[in-house]
Design goal:
This protein is mainly β. The chain contains 3 helices and 93 strands. Keywords: Hydrolase, Protease, Signal.
């Protein structure tokens, strides 16, 4: 006998006992306990003739089982126990029946009794229709028939059990805005609503209707039962305070929940059992159709589980918060192509257990978020399962975790993404794959302190342990304190590993042609194996260093690239990989060792204080020993033209190479064979301050010679004779003042850097000149606060300085002088001229100059000639300065460090510079005076082959008589050697003077081919001392 039959038999026995008591006790009649509906059609509940025992009162048991319809159309109808269709007597006699509550009618009872609708083969129907219509069944509601609540009607009961006997087919529908079925609060873990208890039953909530259950609900409880719930339409809701169990975990009952078209199902927790399935297709992936909000009591555990499908027939979303529990066999989120599914689980105590696999993006688009301390577990995880699917999993916040008993497939056949952030964890007991199949793509980011992804076996990036991925790159990014643990990590040729700031990959790494990108300062401590595909490491853009302290081994090659020129990769291990190391951009700092060969391409730098194999420094590449000062030891090295040796100097030459300045120690041949005066290697000098950073040397003296020994050594020599002219010395990073010149000298066992304090840089010509002069004709006698030797009130004159050209022809490009301190109201009308020498006096005007602004402090400023001037070999010239607004505009021309005059001469007036000057005795040798005369050197090498020969004469002859009318120099190939815009005999004389010779470098760091810009340094010291010796190249006109 079923439970329902037991209840009904008990009720029958109770009624029979009451009848017996009524016989035995006078005044108690059987009619007051039982009245039956007799109207075979439809009738009013409140009409006595429709009942066998009169209109029921609150103590009457009532049955409606004659095929008629009892209509409650007004308030006040009551009963004690009610049967609508079903068994009505001890002989199991009965019939069909219907109850209609409408037009504001109210049917209720106050005694905790039962309502039975249908059963045992009889049909029962209950309808509550219309606003104000209420059926207040304050007891058990047992339905084997049909319940309908519509158009604003209200049904309430202590519990609800539909399909309560085998063979029953029951249905309940709550439809229409305002329509409700309320089951009041009870113990949350009590299943007060059972859809398909032992038979089949359905629950439909539609069009804004609502079912409000104060406890838990079960669909398909006993063996052979089935329960289906459908919630559909905007505003439609099934609300459960307790858990929702779909299907029976032990007895084989089947359950189904369908949420469609903006409907919503709410519960404290969810269990989907073996023959259960939940389909969330509410039409939105941003508004939840399944809401789990936590519950104070646990739901049943054990047994088997069923499926949860979110986003199948339509988009769908599930949220689980506040300690909610979700238990399923498997879950698919984003099930069908073109559909989107989303699931969010959040808060401490919220757990989601998937006994089997979870699919996030099965054939559609899926998203899973695990937040704020929630946990999710499953066997395997497929994120982006099918070819066109996409999936994403976010695990974030402390305490949040995602755990797998099998493998994680991030990008299984489509695209997948995993993010583990802000202290969350992800753990799998199997393998992890980023981009598993040929056309899949996977990415993962592990970021934030405490964030950890742990793979028990192999983490494969861009492959599946058998094959590499296809055309799409898969990426693992670790950043800002994130940590990834794996027994082994394989980086395929479509795989990218990104390390940003504090990033830890706690795993040996095997590279099969993969790429590592580093951002910020980061490190990797485990060993790296390079197979035949090799490894490419790209460092960040600005002043960042990635340190690899493990051993790099294997047959593969290493390529160092960079997002910018200052990103560095530092290798500190004893690396044994056999392939070529190629440095493309940024620096490779070897502080351990690299046994293979290294090629430094344009934009790359090789540095560190370790040991490397053979090195080839290409044009545009650089070698820079140490990280600050240090010694880099190499095998054979080739320095090619256009390459650079970046030399850091930590002292003025006092100390030891490799400790106080950089040293390059070559265990083999240092090959200079590709160098020439036209194809030079640059030696770039950089001084370091006391802190070790770029700055000025603390004890530097510019008037003292200095030597930095053994900046390069080679155990097997240089492959050819060393030639200083094959090197250009760049002093732009030498921050101390320099008055002499730097040389490279072969000391027999290495190369020294030598500073000659009294030699002017090559191509800069020193002239020994007379004193400065002033104009002979004064203009005005103004008080002179500087107290000249002539006494106060002496006249102010214009000034002039002579200089003598060297033995070559030059084109004047500028004259530089230390001037400034000019007045502003009015400003001086500066007059600057270049004059020829006329027997020791100022001669004809050659050009005027465009003067610089004279305001501001005294500093070196440039005067640009207004017309072309060619300086003849060994000729003397005069540079004159004055002001054209006498007595008003003033400026200063500093020509000495006089302890009497304060180091400045004032020129406030201007006189005709055609008048000759007279010697100006000005403190003599103690106070040297300087000008810079910038020139373009004339050259007879018209075809630019670095030789002056017959081919250049042929070029001159072809261009003879040509004139560049637009004012631009005609160019070397046209035969215009001196830049006077015409090819003539003067150019021939230049060729003749240089015939048979090569070109000497104009300056140590000047570009080739010529002409190059040089500086004429002019000294007006009377009796100045000049150094002589084997290294001196001073050109002096005595």
């Amino acid at each position: 006998m079923t439970t329902n039959q037991t209840r009904r038999a008990l009720r029958f026995v109770t009624s029979a006992a009451a009848l017996l008591i009524g016989i035995m006790v006078p005044g108690v009649a059987s009619a007051q306990f039982d009245t039956s509906w007799t109207n075979p059609t439809i009738g009013n509940w409140s009409i006595e003739s429709n009942w066998s025992g009169g209109v029921p009162d609150e103590f009457d048991d009532v049955d409606i089982a004659n095929g008629g319809i009892a209509n409650v159309a007004s308030p006040g109808a009551v009963y004690a126990d009610l049967t609508v269709g079903g068994i009505t007597g001890p002989a199991f006699a009965g019939g069909n029946g219907s109850l209609l509550v409408s037009n504001g009618g109210v049917l209720s009872h106050s005694i905790y009794r039962n309502v039975s609708v249908g059963g045992n083969g009889f049909v029962g129907n209950v309808t509550v229709a219309g606003p104000g219509s209420q059926f207040l069944a304050n007891g058990y509601l047992l339905a084997a028939g049909t319940l309908t609540v519509e158009n604003g009607g209200l049904l309430s009961s202590v519990s609800g059990e539909s399909g309560n006997a085998p063979g029953d087919v029951a249905s309940t529908t709550v439809t229409g805005l305002g329509s409700r079925w309320n089951i009041p609060a009870s113990t949350p873990a009590t299943a007060t609503l059972q859809v398909g208890y032992a038979g089949s039953a359905s629950l439909t909530v539609a069009n804004g209707g609502a079912v409000n259950n104060g406890a838990s609900a079960v669909l398909g409880l006993l063996a052979g039962s089935s329960g289906t719930a459908t919630v559909t339409g905007l505003g439609s809701a099934w609300n459960n305070v307790g858990y929702l169990q779909v299907g029976s975990p032990f007895n084989g009952g089947a359950g189904t929940v369908n949420v469609t078209n903006q409907g919503v199902v709410r519960a404290g927790s969810l269990r989907v059992s073996q023959f259960g399935v939940v389909n969330v297709n509410n039409g939105s992936s941003s508004v939840a159709g399944l809401v789990l909000q936590g519950m104070p009591a646990a739901m049943p555990t054990g047994g088997s589980y069923g499926a949860l499908r979110i986003g199948d027939a339509s988009d769908g979303r599930m949220t689980a918060t506040g300690g909610a529990h979700v238990r399923t066999a498997s879950t698919a989120i984003g099930v069908a192509a073109g559909r989107t599914g989303a699931a969010v689980i959040s808060d401490p105590g919220s757990t989601w257990t998937n006994v089997d696999d979870i699919f996030v993006g099965s054939a559609g688009a899926g998203a899973l978020e695990i937040r704020n301390g929630a946990t999710v577990s499953n066997f395997r995880a497929h994120v982006g399962f099918n070819g066109n699917a996409s999936g994403s999993v976010l695990v974030t916040d402390p305490g949040s975790s995602w755990t797998g008993g099998g493998s994680f497939f991030i990008g299984n056949g489509g695209s997948g993404m995993l993010q583990v952030l802000n202290g969350a964890t992800a753990t799998t007991a199997g393998n992890s794959y980023l981009g598993f199949s040929t056309f899949s793509q996977g990415s993962a980011t592990v970021g934030g302190m405490g964030s950890t992804w742990t793979t028990a076996n192999t983490l494969a990036i861009g492959g599946n342990l058998t094959d590499a991925g296809g055309p799409f790159a898969s990426t693992l990014r670790i950043e800002n304190g994130g940590r990834v643990n794996a027994n082994e990590t394989i980086l395929y040729n479509t795989g990218v590993l990104e390390l940003n700031n504090i990033a830890t990959l706690n795993s040996p790494l095997l590279s099969k042609g993969g790429v590592i990108r580093t951002y910020g300062n980061t490190s990797h401590a485990d060993n790296v194996t390079l197979d035949a595909g090799g490894l490419s490491i790209t460092t960040g853009a600005v002043d960042t260093t990635a340190v690899f302290s493990g051993v790099l081994s294997g047959p593969g090659a290493l390529t160092k690239s960079g997002l910018g020129p200052t990103g560095a990769l530092r290798l500190t291990g004893a690396n044994t990989y056999a392939g070529l190391t190629t440095i493309k951009t940024g620096a490779l700092l070897v502080d351990g060792s690299v046994t293979g060969a290294t090629q430094v391409n344009a934009g790359g730098t090789l540095g560190g204080s370790g040991v490397v194999g053979t090195v080839d420094v290409q044009s545009g590449g650089a070698v820079a020993p140490g990280s600050s000062v240090g010694t880099l030891t190499t095998g054979d090295m080739i320095l090619r033209g256009g390459g650079m040796y970046a030399l850091e100097l930590g002292s003025e030459g006092v100390g030891v190479a490799g400790t106080d300045w950089d040293s390059l120690a070559v265990n083999g041949t240092l090959d200079f064979s590709s160098l020439s005066p036209a194809n030079r290697c640059t030696l770039s000098l950089k001084t370091l301050g006391a802190s070790g950073a770029a700055g000025s040397l603390t004890t530097w003296q510019s008037d003292v010679d200095h030597t930095w020994s053994n900046i390069m050594t080679a155990s097997a020599g240089y492959g050819r004779d060393f030639d200083e002219s094959h090197f250009a010395i760049d002093v732009s990073g030498f921050q101390n003042p320099v008055q002499g010149k730097f040389h490279l000298l072969d000391n027999g066992g290495g190369i020294d850097l030598f500073y000659d304090a009294y030699e002017v840089a090559e191509g800069v010509l020193l002239t020994n000149l007379d004193e400065p002069v002033r104009g002979a004709t004064p203009i005005g006698n103004n008080p002179n606060p500087l107290d000249p030797p002539e006494g106060p009130g002496a006249p102010w004159y214009w000034g002039a300085q002579q200089f003598i050209n060297d033995g070559a022809t030059h084109t004047l490009t500028a004259i530089k002088a230390r001037v400034g301190g000019g007045s502003t109201a009015p400003a001086p009308q500066v007059v600057a001229e270049l004059r020829a020498d006329d027997g020791g006096t100022i001669g004809a005007l050659l050009t005027t100059f465009t003067a610089p602004d004279m305001t501001g402090d005294l500093e070196v400023r440039e005067f640009v000639p207004d017309s072309l001037v060619t300086l003849d070999p060994s000729a003397k010239y005069w540079f004159t300065l004055g002001s054209a607004n006498p007595g008003e505009g003033t400026f200063f021309w500093q020509y000495a460090n006089s302890n009497v005059w304060g180091g400045a001469g004032a020129f406030a007036n201007y006189a005709d510079s055609a008048e000759s000057g007279s010697p100006w005795t000005y403190r003599g040798v103690d106070f040297p005076y300087f000008l810079e005369v910038d020139v373009a050197t004339a050259s007879g090498d018209f075809n630019g082959d670095n030789q002056v020969d017959g081919e250049d004469l042929a070029a001159w002859a072809m261009g003879f008589g040509q004139f560049d009318g637009v004012g631009a120099p005609a160019g070397l190939a046209d035969g215009d050697a001196n830049g006077d815009l015409i090819v003539d005999g003067g150019d021939f004389l230049v060729w003749q003077q240089q015939l048979g010779g090569g070109l000497q470098a104009i300056a140590a760091n000047a570009p080739v081919p010529e002409p190059a810009t040089s500086l004429l340094l002019i000294s007006a010291v009377v009796g100045i001392r000049h150094r002589s010796g084997p290294k001196s190249r001073i050109l002096v006109d005595e």
